[in-house]
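Q: Fold this one first, please.
A: Sequence and structure below.
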Amino acid sequence: MHETINFGNLFTIPEQVQAFAQSRKTGQIAVLNSKPEASLYLQDGEIVHAELEGRDGLEAAIALINLPDAVTEFRIGIPSPRRTIHMPHVQILCEAARLSDESAARIHVNGAAVPMIGKEEEIKSSRLAGEPMIHVFVHGKEKTYALKPGLVYIGRTSNNDIVVPHPTVSSHHASIERTSQGIILRDLDSRNGTFLRGQRIKECWLGDSDEIAFGEVKALFARPAAAAAA
């Protein structure tokens, strides 16, 4: 008999996936309050199959990840009946987060609505056009930073590339790496977490107009069209 861990609704499915990925677990995340019961299968920490209301594969996995108020249990060692997913879990979580808030057009900073910045507006208005950028909102002020190829460190102390003087930001909070494949956001074991579109993350690919939070500090990633070919 396989061991079962009953989570109830204590942890979201994205939180469970990230935890099981770190420990390279194999098993089944069963969603008990879905009729019929829905399942997300992991093999060595990676999502390999999902089933939800007659759907399976990646579509079902993303729908499960975005399922509100899921009541779950993890069945350790349960093998997947088949493999329908070959995408890394980090990309799946990012895609699910992006789709869950695809229609969002504004973010809120200190209670005030701030428009999301579109590609054309960036290219016309910014002297940094052609480079991917991150806009950081601290104490009601916006600062914009170009992201050059390589690693950029973000944190509260002065030895970071992007200094964010806020009590909820750790000394060395996060990093952003610009690679030839894309741009990766990583949390550096910060106390108050790094979030992408409201989901706490450890590592995630960034897409245009992604909303980020370092602790309680809001930020916006923007990728002008000219940088897409970089």
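Q: Good. Now the second chain.
A: Here it is, same layout.
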Amino acid sequence: MRPNNGNSETRTLTVSAFIATVFAVGGLVVGLVMGSLVIAFDGVYSLVSLLLTLLSLAAANQLKNNHSMLSLLGRNRVEAIVIAIKASVILLIVSVSLYSAVSAMFTGGRPIDTSVATIFGVLNVLGCGYAWWYIENKNKALASNLINAESKQWQMDTMLSVAVTAGFIVAWFVEQTPWASYSIYADPMMMILMSAYFIKVPAVMLKEAFTQLAIEKIKRERQSRTTRTAASKRVATTSA
């Protein structure tokens, strides 16, 4: 990677970290105050996204230094490891959230203020949509695996926000009907549906990362065999 691309990669990850910070704080505060599983999950996901972005940022900075330990490991290998860590953490969050939602379904649901939740959801959609658009455009220009993984994170967050907002709107309409008593199950039900759908994203990321690591291992083994063969031939020539 050229130095200017490395700097652009760092700037893009820094912007992503800043936006993730805003959504992490907002989502956690609103989710805890309202007692909403979905909004709290969105906040936790944003917080983890921030931590994972910082991990990518640290890796990108190290890779710019040709003499750093990560550079010696090789860019493709480091990127695959970082992406594998990201995917594993996201997979864990989705799994825990799914368990919490299923538990809530069997313990009386979760009553929430759907009007406030909808307003928060709309703001989330706009913010996450902008972050996804910005980072995806940078990804097309930089062709970086780290930025590509970051784009997938924001894609998942944007789709999550759209689904959450749509769910809260539906829940609001249900509250205006004779079935209003069932609206308390809207929050955990949305969490279950989203978990079942979004679990695919980190699963695919994890599979791709392990595939890349396997490819890098094969390359290193081939290179090692080639080096040993060349050394053996030099020794044989010298002995002759």
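Q: Anything worth noting on the second one?
A: The helical segments are 3-34, 37-63, 69-73, 75-105, 114-142, 145-175, 186-198, 200-239.
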